[in-house]
Structures are given as structure tokens and as C-alpha cells.
């Protein structure tokens, strides 16, 4: 039976450094292939984590976007073949539908000395191993958008050729923008559904609660301030107390009070069941994205 490895790396955790991994090759470089929001957030996090701009590269299809990122961060834009020949770590951050042409570019120039890290939702390590030269180590990672504020939750899984040192490198890299957990790759579609898409569920609920505040007569700015700080406080309580969410909810739920009346309505309208069904649907879509690239 697969067991989740509960090793969570934070920005303070001691792990194998990129310098250690590539000591024989000189100063390590990381190339982010596809500098959208997630790619940019990773580059920013690496800089804030102590990496130098000349240790980083990125590729981007739009020249205006490339110029903007270079101006903002001092990081050089390049093309995919050059990035593959130059970098020790290639972070693939393109949309799943764009992966095939990218792999076509990578296959002739990447080798087994290069670590490939996929941030692509739904795409298994076997796809990369099938399309790239034999022996290339691949690590599959699923971060989420709080990477933009240094509070991502990322899950990583090794491919066939990825060793412990490769996982440590990815942990170090992603720990600059949040926390990291190791899981078997078989659990990655569930991770994608739960934490990869998870921030959207919270945003959806916060949006609905703000609308409820407006309906009850509060100004929008007041409703937003009340709900956003309540969300921050509730998340902090969960993180810091270690209490089960049921215990924390019950502490707010007085007999015959306002909260239990609200909980009864949520249960009556099937909110719990709807959330579970929604997360299952996201898991299924992640599986579909991977299946679309299976051979034959």
C-alpha cells in the first residue's frame, strides 16, 4: 500500500543544496520553461531565497513579457534549447496542452545530467521519461497559487530515475515559496484536486460570504475586511493549534446559537457533499489531462 511520506520542508529546513548537487559542474543554474504567474512566482521566490539572477534563466513565448520580467528581476530570457544546454535544473511550467511541442524541443538537447521538474497539472513523469533521453531524472511537483505570496503548498513525487538527492533539490527550490510534502505519484491527481485547485475553493467561499454580508446591509469594504481577516485568523488557528477542524468549529458553535443555525443551513443545502463532489471532479479532470498524452 502506498504511504504518504510526511516530510514537510519549510524555508528553514536544512536540505541538500543545489551547489552540492552540481559541485563538479560549477555554479548551478535553474531555468524556468514558461514564465507565467507560477513561473514568475518561483523566480521571485528563488531570488528572495538568496539565488543570484545570473544563476537563473527563463523562457517565454511573448517578447513583451520577457522584457518585462528581465526588467523586473534582472534574469535573462533565452530559448528552450539554450536553457536545456545551460541549466542544471529545468522547471517545466507550461500549460499541459503546450507540453508536446516543448518536449520536442527538449528531447534533442537534454541529457541525464539535467534534472527536469514538472509543474504541469495531470502530466505523469512517465510522459517525460518516454519523450526524453533514457535516464533523465524527472520530479513531478504540484504547487498552488499562494506561491505568489510565499505561502504555497507543494507536493513532489519522483520519477523512475529520480534519486533522493533530486528530491532534496526540488524541496530546497520550492521551499523558497512555501511548504513541501512528498507523496507517491499515484496520489498526485488527488493533490492537484485538493491543494492545487484548493485556493479557488476558498476564494469562491469568501466571495459568497462577502455577497452575504452585502445582502445583510454591510458596505462591501466592511464585508471584505471582516471575511478576509476571519479567513486569515481561522487558517492561522488551524496551523498553530494543531486541533482538528471539528474541535475548532464546535468551539464557535453554542447550543441554540447563531452558528449552529448557519451550520444547519449549510448541511441542508449539501455544501459538504458539493465540496467533496467538486474535488472528485477536479481529480478526474487531472487524470484526463494525463490520459490525453498516453501512447496509442
TrEMBL record:
EC code: 1.5.1.2
Catalytic activity: L-proline + NAD(+) = (S)-1-pyrroline-5-carboxylate + NADH + 2 H(+); L-proline + NADP(+) = (S)-1-pyrroline-5-carboxylate + NADPH + 2 H(+)
InterPro entries: 6-PGluconate_DH-like_C_sf, NAD(P)-bd_dom_sf, P5C_Rdtase_cat_N, P5CR-like_CS, P5CR_dimer, Pyrroline-COOH_reductase
Domain Pyrroline-5-carboxylate reductase catalytic N-terminal: 29-122
GO terms, biological process: L-proline biosynthetic process
Enzyme type, top EC level: oxidoreductase
Gene Ontology molecular functions: pyrroline-5-carboxylate reductase activity
GO CC, one annotated term: cytoplasm
Localization annotation: Cytoplasm
Main location: cytoplasm
Pathway listed: Amino-acid biosynthesis; L-proline biosynthesis; L-proline from L-glutamate 5-semialdehyde: step 1/1
Positions of NADP(+) binding: 93-96
UniProt keyword terms in alphabetical order: Amino-acid biosynthesis, Cytoplasm, NADP, Oxidoreductase, Proline biosynthesis
Domain spans labelled Pyrroline-5-carboxylate reductase dimerisation: 185-289
Cytoplasm keyword on record: yes
Pfam families: F420_oxidored, P5CR_dimer
Family to which this protein belongs: Belongs to the pyrroline-5-carboxylate reductase family.
Protein's job: Catalyzes the reduction of 1-pyrroline-5-carboxylate (PCA) to L-proline.
HAMAP family xrefs: P5C_reductase (MF_01925)
Protein name in the entry: Pyrroline-5-carboxylate reductase
